[in-house]
Structure formats: structure tokens, C-alpha cells
Amino acid sequence: MRKKLCFIILFLFITLVLENVWSIEILDYTSHIYFYDDKLLKEIYITIASNKLFDRFTYVFQDSYDSLKILDEDNNELFYIVKREGNLRYITIFFPKNISYARVKYVFENISYITFTKTENNTISKHYTVIISDIVQANVINYTMRIFVSKKYNLLDIIPYSDIKLGDNYYVIEFKNRRGLFKVALFLTYVEKVTIQPEKRITNYNHIVILTLLILTVIFVLRYYLRKIRFERVTKGLRDDEIYVLKIIMRKNGIEQKKIEEITNFSKAKVSKILSELEKRGLIKKRRIGNRNKIYINF
Q: CA-CA distances (angstroms) from residue 127 to 37, 113, 151, 187, 236?
């Protein structure tokens, strides 16, 4: 009798603890990959839910991409930050308010892939090796990957193999219920007949134009990376919400404090505290114009 009583008490205690554990479940993870016109686009739809309210969500990805947009169910763009560790990218989304359920869409543009071109007998043959990867975490309940390849390409092989369905304009390949790091390799070709023009001699004027464009490109890239390094240096030691506010000010220099409160959905007191900390570090400066505070970048 005493053993049964102890067992019942232990069971009730474990149930109570589990009910109060904060966890975010991923109800659905659907990955759509499109390969067309020598472009690789990836759209990921993630549905998340939790037994407690949350205002941010982090997931890890491995793709190398040119640009990323994250949208909510109403196609509103969400603010996010990216933390890199090796070839992994930990992407944290910030929601405008506390929620317990969300469906978000990640749009990765111009994902990198391997290609080489061979010209022979007035034909150009392009060969593509496309590696697609998803990291399917343990808390993902349903996982689906669908790959859409334009019919203008010859699909030579898929690893791992899967049945190919024919759509109107695409080959469709589907995988379900995978776990961990899941990779798919596609091997494609495209052959095009062309008229090869005799090589023209480039004039000195063309050389100057090309050299000028190259110098401007180098300057642009250097300015971009120097700004990026500078931003990482000045934001070192800042909290996520402070970085969030600083990026808003950088996007709209001279923004009013009230507008920051509206964008972030933070309280007036919290925004004032964050701005005071940023001003103390010399990252921003305030200007009083009438009865309004305008905030400017100071680095």
C-alpha cells in the first residue's frame, strides 16, 4: 500500500513538472526548393507552438545564400539576427508581441551550387551539382522536402533516390519524415546550341572601363566588410533587444523615440532604458526638437 501511494505521488509530481516545462514544438517543417534559369531558391515554412508565450524563435540552417527574407502568415517581414558558428547559421526571429503559435516563411535567394560549362561543336553544355540540406531537429513533428526542377534541365541522378513526379513545368521530387542533417544531391545538365562568334579584340577604352568597374567593386566590397566589422565591434556586449533597437535607428537615422516603441512593441520605460544605455556607450545621440526626441547614430 505504501509503495502504491509513493508511486502515485511520484507520478503526480512528474506530471506537474512536465506541464510547466517551457518547450517550443515544431508542428510542421516544409522545405520547397526551386531550380530554374540557373537560380536556386529555397522557401521553408515552419509552424511552431508552445505551452507558454514567446517573442522570439531560433533555428539552425546550413545553406550559403545571397539574401534572406522572413515573413509571417500575413506576409509581413520579420526582424531577425544571424549568428554564425562554422558553416552553421543560427537565425533568431523577433516577433512584435508575445505569442504561443506562429507560421513563418524563410525565403533564401541565390543559394550556391557547383557548375561547369563545356563548349564543343557549336553547343554549350552546362553541368550542375546541387547539394540541398535541411537540419531536422528532434522537436520537428512533421517534415517534408519538395524539390522543383525546371523541365529545361536533364535530371541525371538523385541521391538518395526518390520517385520523380511530372508537373506542368517542373520535375517534382519529395522526401518525408527525415531526421538530423538531411542532404540531397542533384546532378543536372543543360545543352544549348549557339553560334560562336569570333573573338573580338578589346580596345584600350574597354580596358579602362573594365579596370574602373573592378576598382569600384573592390571599394564597395571593402566598405561593406569594414562597416560589418565595425558594427560587430561596437555591438559587442550588447543584449539582443539593444541590438534590435540599434538596427532600427541605423535603418532610419533621426527616428523618433515614440516610433521605436511602436515598431518594437516595447514599453516606453524599456525603450528609454535601452536608449540611455546606447547613448552611454556613445553609439547614439538624442536631439530634442520641440516636445519630441529624435535619435541619431553616433558611430
A: 13, 11, 15, 8, 44
